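Form 7-S
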Amino acid sequence: MKQVVAAVGVAAMALAALSGCTIAVPSPTAPTVAQSPAPPSFAPPTIVAGHDAAAVAAAPMTFAAGTALRASVPVEFSDILGQPPQDYAETPGPPQWKLLKKNMAGQTQYSNAAGCKAAYWVTTHQGPLITMGDDKGSTFELMKYLIPSVLPDSLTETTLPWVAEAGTKGPGITFLRHNTKGAEGVMASSVWARMLGTADTALMVTLACPNDELLASTTPELMAKLSVAPPSN
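Output:
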């Protein structure tokens, strides 16, 4: 596997897998006089036996809990970063975050007036990085793919909201986080990553700010408006 320095390379790899989809359509049969039209039918929602999506959504998505997800059903992000502050005591002002890119090659990007830039994206078909049943180990492999020089002791466990609608209360989903301190000509930054092996989904978030203090104060603001949405039936 070739290593990529830029995280965007993971999203590009996912696009290459989204090709070659075909749908088989059966040949129609000519009706006869003796045939009568079939009554209309309605297919019920597809529910996987033994899978309780509501229970999965209500519990913290720890590394061990990843096996409770449905196999190969992707998990997505939810955000309200482009919405104005919800302070009903005052006239709503402009949004704190400006949308720069929406779901381009799977990536969404925002910036704010303080000079911080945030991005998040999802990729699938990450088989070479996945050890089934070991989301933590798989997440470390994802981090090594994004940042080839990363070491295990430079990563910390942290949580993002695990709720269908960003900005609402609920349990958390465990990520690994890597921080880079700011320096002259180098922005302070954080990278969050989580591999969901059973769901075959890689989740990534980045935040970069002009200095360490601004990164620290902006991180909770970002997490208050960004979440990972549990899939439903």
